[in-house]
Amino acid sequence: MVADLPTGFWSGWVIVLTCVSLATLVWIVLSVYFAPPDSKSTHGEIDHDPVWDTDLREGTSAPPLWWFWMLLGALVFSLGYLMLYPGLGSFEGLLNWSQGKRLVSSYENYEESFDARRAEIAATSLSELQGNTALMETADRIFRRECSACHGADGRGQAALFPNLLDVDWQWGGSPEQIEQTLRGGRNASMPAWEASLGEEKTRDVANYLLNFSDRGHAGRTVYEQNCAACHGVDGTGNVFLGAPNLADNTWLYGGDIDSILATLRQGRAGKMPAFDEQRLDAAQLKLIIAKLAR
Ligand code: HEC
Ligand code: HEC
Q1: I need a surface site. Which of 124, 268, 271, 289 has the fewest CB within 10 A?
Q2: CA of 182 to the centre of ligand 1 (A)
Q3: pLDDT value at 275 more than 90
């Protein structure tokens, strides 16, 4: 609060007011205990003090002396506190303490408390990690938090837009290095739209050929070899460097019925996997995720 106030003028006022009220407090306490004993009688008021119940006289004697020591202690404490911690205007205190700094240092402690776990994960092989149930549960939690919105809670993909990550079919490769590259760098797939260049008939031919990939005599086969094999391979097994999926394996990202395939060919596809930098997934979290996905 005080740190938000403009320094200088207002801070000066806060300091003056704080000091004046402390001094007033000291003065009141001192005057209660150390007022000259006859100050009351000089005004001749002592006889006019009210009397209750015939002999209870309302007096003005000071409270017990241990109260005085308690109040003095509290005052000394306040002065000490105001010297050490922020409280007097924008004066930061001799200890240089602040809530913000405390937050930062407790966050650093929090981070440090995981350093040992991180080092342990870094030193463990993927197959050992895969055998460690507790760590794999951590991997599941990271996955649910960071990935499941797109890839589905169980990682089996969804909406014919986000790939299944638990099958054997990898567009960009399923080795630990390839998965790491997919996560750190993100992936941008680019499948061109075909209908404009091929025309309606050839588009249908090649779409139907994809449904009968083993039929070498199919009318769509030449269209495929001329236009598609460069990326998807002559045998249709795809190309992990381009993210061109295997078309011969009956696993489909965007749907394997004739209408879905035609839609893919007409409009093209541009799947985009976001990049996860160190801020979103640190090295240990990344390794756990890779252990979860790689086989
Ligand atoms: C420049 C390289 C390239 C060429 C040429 C190409 N493709 Fe693709 N194709 C891709 C990529 C990359 C993807 C993945 C798109 C994505 O993930 O968003 C893809 C995806 C597809 C899919 C969707 C697969 C699925 O699992 O849903 C089909 C079907 C397909 N291509 C058919 C064809 C056909 C037929 C041709 C030839 C007429 C062709 N492609 C030519 C790169 C290419
Ligand atoms: C915003 C949505 C989104 C999020 C979040 C997301 N992904 Fe993806 N991911 C995609 C899309 C879309 C693709 C397909 C890209 C393409 O078409 O080639 C993909 C592709 C992948 C692939 C490549 C699959 C293959 O067959 O090669 C892997 C591996 C992957 N994601 C893992 C993850 C992991 C792990 C996370 C969480 C840390 C994650 N993704 C978070 C959208 C997402």
Answers
A1: 268
A2: 18
A3: yes
The neighbour count for residue 116, using CB atoms within 10 Å, is: 9
Q: Which has the higher per-residue pLDDT, 62 or 130?
A: 130
CA of 83 to the centre of ligand 2 (A): 56
> CA 223, CA 200: separation in Å to the nearest integer?
12
Q: Which amino acid is at 203?
A: T
Contact 59, 40 (CB under 8 A): no
CA distance 23 to 41: 28
Ligand 2 pocket member 191 (CB < 6 A)? no
- Banded model confidence at residue 113, pLDDT cuts 50, 70, 90: low
**Residue 41 predicted with pLDDT over 80:** no
Instruction: Output the residue whose Cα is nearest ligand 1's atom 9.
Output: 191
Q: Specify the residue with its C-alpha closest to ligand 2, atom 34.
A: 147
- Separation of alpha carbons 192 and 207, rounded Å: 14
Amino acid at site 185: G
Average pLDDT score over the chain: 84
Rounded Cα distance between 188 and 193, Å, is 16
